[in-house]
Design a protein that fits this description.
Layout: H1 3-13, H2 17-37, H3 44-62, H4 66-85, H5 90-113, H6 123-143, H7 152-157, H8 165-172, H9 186-194, H10 212-232, H11 245-248, H12 252-266, H13 268-283, H14 308-312, H15 317-323, H16 326-340, H17 349-363, H18 367-389, H19 391-394, H20 404-427, H21 430-439, H22 443-458, H23 466-501
Helix pairs in contact: 2-3, 2-13, 3-8, 4-5, 4-6, 4-8, 5-6, 6-16, 10-13, 12-20, 16-17, 17-18, 18-20, 18-22, 20-21
Length: about 500
Amino acid sequence: MLDSFFGSLSEAVSFPEDQLRCLSALLLGYPLAFAFRLLPANNPNLKHIASVVTSFFLIVVVVNDLVGLMHLLGSSIAVWRIMGVVEGKWGPRLVFIGVMLHMSVSHLIRQFNDYRGYKLDHTGPQMILTMKLTSWAFNVYDGRRNPKELSRYQQDHAITTFPSLLHYLSYVFFFPAVLVGPSFEYMDYIRFIELSQFRDPKTGKIHWPAGRVMASMKSFFFSLIALASLATIGPKLDVLWTLDPAWKALPWVLRFGYVQLAAFAARFKYYAVWKMAEGACVMAGFGYNGQDPKTGESLWDATSNINVWAYETGESIKTLADNWNMGTNKWLKHSVYFRVVSPGSKPGPLETFATFGVSAFWHGFYPGYYLMFASSATALTAGKLLRSHLRPRFASAASGRTPTWYNMLGMLLTQSTINYLSISFLLLTFTDSIEVWKNLYFAVHIGIVAVTVLVPVAFPVKRKSKKQQQETEKVKELVHDVAEEVAAVAVGAAKEVLESAIPAAGKVKTL
């Protein structure tokens, strides 16, 4: 549908038709989200129907991917039926295995038919769907467990009442996020639809926090800036030029510098689509995150998938991971990382590598993905060693802060590391990735190994002196004495209240 329109427009603006369709669907999300916000607050079923119908319209009519919709819809209904029938821990396990296999088949078909191609198809939305379906299955399972066995996060998102198919599909196909995300939890979505977080418990009236439209427009205009940057800077910093003999002939410093710039420019496309989808979610009223404790202003970043400033100025690999593709990170954390940890044990390197492995598997089967995520796991371990062994030597004893030069050096090393490692993610193939790293003398990889091996030996963790240990023990004893004194006063007060309230009971014995 609309083939002639998008075909003519694609030729006129010299922009790929598939990307033009996707961008048009994201832009249409804004007026549709504004209208969605105006639907009656006391009719949640109308909102659920509108969400599903709107997504079907965008996927079939605008994006022109009826086959893709069949994949998404079929997988969603299958998961709903499985969790309705299978109880216990095998329900979410079957769902996780099933949807990951389905997505993997889609990845392989795309990889064989369009190797190293960037034509958009249903695999992108299916990756978002995989996160939603697996987290939803675990939440249903948590709703059937003893609440005492759950973490605070699991308790907040446990689904205690199995949802109807309409409510479930509304969550799966929430139209501002159906194409590029973000992923979010089912209970957060239901609270938004029912407006429970905005409803006055006494009067039942809805009080919308201020700043929704402004926050939406900020994301929208930022996405436009990212698109403009991608269109102007992107072609001049093509990562494929690293395979050209002209690049290889450059001095090492210039080769390394180009890799830094090319990796930075490649992030514009993610910034553009993620911020555009985030703005549409906020326009619909989804994304309220309380108030800023310092300014008191309303925060509308609950559906944010990227914190651009925090990522571009991050001083550690962990900071970058926490602020990049945050919806996926949350899914990996709560549906993978904490699900593979044995009860009563602490997460270790095995859980970290398992999480990175699932992340690479989720992205697809290009060898470059696995090279990057394996390297990133080792870089993360090296960063933890630097923090535990080196940082305390430069941190202020009074404030615990490190000097500015230390922070700036950390930011420079972190950005250089991630830009170097992400080349394999962009080049996709094993041969090309190794070739580029070889031309850079595997500098960052050697640095990671050196840090891992040498830092614990050269900078052992300082143990507290005997005097510091004695001071710590004195503080503990003081805190213990104060706690006992407060408890004694509280018990005495309670005794007096009880004795005065129930004089016939006589004296109240206390332990």
